[in-house]
Amino acid sequence: MSDFVLDPRLDRDTTLLTKLGLCQLRLMEDSRWPWVLLVPQRDGITEIFDMTPLDQTMLTFETAITAQALKQATDCLKVNTGALGNQVRQFHLHIIARTEGDPAWPGPVWGHGQATPWDANARAKFTERLLEAL
Prior knowledge:
It comes from Hoeflea halophila. It holds the Pfam family HIT. One of its GO terms (molecular function) is hydrolase activity. Residues 36-105 form the HIT domain. This protein is of the alpha+beta class and 134 residues long. The protein has a single domain (8-100, 112-133), classed as 2-Layer Sandwich (HIT family, subunit A). It has three helices and five strands, in the order αβββαββα. A five-stranded antiparallel beta sheet has the order 1-2-3-5-4. Helix 2 packs across helix 3. The longest helix has 22 residues, at 53-74. The termini are far apart. The mean pLDDT is 95.
């Protein structure tokens, strides 16, 4: 098995927050939504069924604890999760905090407007709250 390599687009559009047991937890570089990704550190994975049963179980666990931490850190109304992979084939799971009245509410966040970069101070505060909740 070769070393894990992150897709360059994920590397460009996200920032590594921490590494969990299976996944990298990455912050999406769009401050309009508290939006993180889980990226399993496995090469050649494009679908959840490409993963071993143990990795699937770990992904489920890491998704649950991340979603719960995101809800606690943001006090959002709803946590959305999704694994689309149409543009970036490397398996990654989006976990997004949604609140009534956010820029795309109640529609999906994908394709809505232009990304707004994080202010360094806001990113630091959000990251601290999320990692503390995790």
